[in-house]
Amino acid sequence: MKIVSIRDVEKEPFSHPIFTGPDVTRQLLVPDSKELSVNVVNFGKGVRNKFHSHDSEQVLIVTSGKGIVATEKEERIVTEGDIVLIPPGEKHWHGATRDSDFSHIYVSRLGSALTQLED
Questions:
Q1: Strands 12-13, 102-109: parallel, antiparallel or unpaired by DSSP?
Q2: Residues 51-65, buried b or exposed e (16+ Cβ, 10 A)?
Q3: What is the pLDDT of residues 36-77, one digit of tens each?
Q4: Total structural domains in the chain?
Q5: Residue 52: its pLDDT value, please?
Q6: What is the DSSP annotation of 62-74?
Q7: Which CATH number belongs to the domain containing residue 61 in this structure?
Q8: Which residues pair with 62 in a beta bridge?
Q9: Radius of gyration of the chain (CA)
């Protein structure tokens, strides 16, 4: 068994073309997992990722701030304690509102593919 505290995991810059701005960091929570990718993503105000999909389920657990999770059909405001299940293949994006930073833990199958669907 291994226990990790989010407070003790260093935030590292997370630069990737999928984000709409540079103010994003990541915390690798369980880098030794053989089956799961479990990380915290921290978004600065107004920063989000672009429309994308995954080939496996993705779970988002909101840990702080106010964010938006959107599909082609709806946009939902999410806050600390909310848990989102995104099914495989669903086109979506998530990120911070204009007036709040936003952090969530994401859990997905290790090695699952992400397809960016927006330029």
A1: unpaired
A2: bbbbebebebbbbeb
A3: 999 999 999 999 999 999 999 999 999 999 999 999 999 999
A4: 1
A5: 98
A6: EEEEEEEEEESS-
A7: 2.60.120.10
A8: 104
A9: 13
